[in-house]
Each structure stands twice: as structure tokens, then as C-alpha cells.
Amino acid sequence: MRRLTFDLDVLRSLVLGIELGSFAKASDRLGLSTSAVSAQLKKLEDQVDIPILRKSGRGMVLTPAGETLFGYAKRLLELNDEAVSAIRGVELQGCVRLGLQEDFGERLLTESLGCFARAHPCIRIEVQVSRNAELLDLVRRGRLDLALAWDSGNSTPYNQFVAELPLCWIGREDSTCIGNDDPLPLVVFEAPCFMRSAATNALDHAAIPWRFAFTSLSLSGIWAAVSAGLGITVRTRAGLPSHLHVLKGMPALPKIGLILHSAESTPAPPVKRLAEILLANLNDLLLPLKQKPLAASGVSSK
């Protein structure tokens, strides 16, 4: 059997078109004409000798074979980009101090820091997981180089919008605290907390009585209390434990922005590179959840 060797530029067009939901947008992002991207995809289908895309309405979606190829394509491109970063950044040295919310502490830290450490082994990374107010304070004081935080209405001089996510009511699947005559038990962070205020405002607007059943300083405490059936909480789906569920039929909640803050208007090369890796991994993590596309890498002044 003839051995196939995929063209990474073609795979990048395929992956970007699917992620953006439009090959026209992908061609614009890649600086190619739509006909050039179409020719790439036709060449790819001819190469594998099986359809990878099919029409669906006015757009194109993956066939079962295309879904398989899509998964491998992403892995090949990630490895390629990691290799390029390792070669170009082999001389980078120093320390990067990162802060982020607990919602992203597990998956994002594992994937982003692992990728960064492999590409830049001479750079030391210091990480602090904390709540919004402390993260922003540390950025302003120059104690953190980067901080990924929810948009609570406060800001820093140098920041960029990352995504906007819907808030959700979260509880156990068998929750019995909804629909009875007792005040709705809430599991919340200690004030001040945007999500806590969003929950109480929504319930007040719907004339639903409520009470604070449990307050915590940590997200792990929130998830533990909800898992124990002490009440329900408000959060995004980011980092949602698999045994908890988004509850339906509850009052509408607002969306919340996610912001990447920087201590400097022009970050040092190691800081800039970590920001790029964070945004790339966030794109995969938040793709099913976000309402707006991720901004380009780099931190802008506002």
C-alpha cells in the first residue's frame, strides 16, 4: 500500500475551518483565497480516497472519516507547533509568574504548563490559584506577570478579552431543593462575588425566596457542598465536575467575560509565549461553551 504523507498546511485549513464554523473565515485567517482552501480540501479527499466533508444546509460538516482525521490533524498540528516553539525558544530563560481561577486549575495547568515546559525547559514557572480580587491586585503590584480572571467589573491597565461564557445553575441531578415551598438553598463564595450576586439578583427578580446554605473561600468547597446536596450554585460549565449537572427551568442568568491580564504593556518573550499557549489551550477547552471567538494572542492596553 502506498504510504501517505499529509500536508500540514492542508490539515491546518481543515482544522481551522471546522473550529471557526466556516472555511471562508478560515481562508481569511490564513491569508488564502477561498478557492485555494477548497483546492486544498479536494486534494486531501483525493489523497485519502474517501469523503471527509459533506454538505449540511449552507455549510459543510465532517463525515465519520473526517471526524477521525480531524482528531489526528489537531494532534499533528499541536506537535508541529510545539516543535517550532522549542526550536525558536530554546534560548529563552527566566521566570514567568501566572495566576488563574480555580475553574481552570486542573486541565489548563496540566496541558498549558506541560507544553510550555517541554518547549522552554530553561524557564521557571510560578503559579498562584486564587480569587479575582487577589489576582488583579497581584498583577497591579507586579507580583504576577499574567492572570486569567473573570470579568468582575474591575480591571488592570493591560488586558485582553478572551471569551464570554453563560452562567448556569448547577446542582446534583437528583436535587430536591427546587420546586418546594422552602427558600432555595444556595452554595456560594463569600462576598464580594459576581456569581453570588447574579444568583440572588435572578432569584429576587423571579420572586423566588432563597437562603445561603453554605459559603466558601474555595471552589473545591463549593463543589463539595453541592455534591453533598446542601444546595445549588451558579458557575460556568468550565471545570464543571462530571457528577454535577446544569439545572434546567431556572431563572435566566447573565454571561460573564474571561480576561487575560498582564503586568506589562509589552510582555517579555517568555511571558508572551506562555500567553499564546494559554490562549491556544483555552480555545479547545472553551470551544463548546464560549459565545465569542478568542482574541488573538498577545495582551493589549485598554
What does this structure look like?
By secondary structure, this protein is α/β, with parallel strands linked by helices. The chain folds into three domains: 8-87, Arc Repressor Mutant, subunit A, CATH 1.10.10.10; 94-163 and 256-286, D-Maltodextrin-Binding Protein, domain 2 (3-Layer(aba) Sandwich); 168-253, Periplasmic binding protein-like II (D-Maltodextrin-Binding Protein, domain 2), CATH 3.40.190.10. 40% of the residues lie in helices and 22% in strands. It contains nine helices and twelve strands. Strands 4-3-5-12-6 form a five-stranded mixed β-sheet, sandwiched between helices. Strands 10-7-11 form a three-stranded antiparallel β-sheet. A two-stranded antiparallel sheet has the order 1-2. Helix 5 (107-119) links the parallel strand 3 and strand 4. Helix 1 crosses helix 2, helix 1 (8-20) packs across helix 4 (64-88) and helix 5 (107-119) packs across helix 9. It starts with 7 loop residues before the first helix and ends in a 16-residue tail after the last helix. Mean pLDDT is 84; it is low at 290-302.
| Residue runs with pLDDT of under 50 for 5 or more positions | 290-302
CATH homologous superfamily identity of the largest domain: Periplasmic binding protein-like II
Outline type = globular
* Mean pLDDT over all positions: 84
- Walk across the major sheet and give the strand order: 4-3-5-12-6
**CATH topology call of the largest domain:** D-Maltodextrin-Binding Protein, domain 2
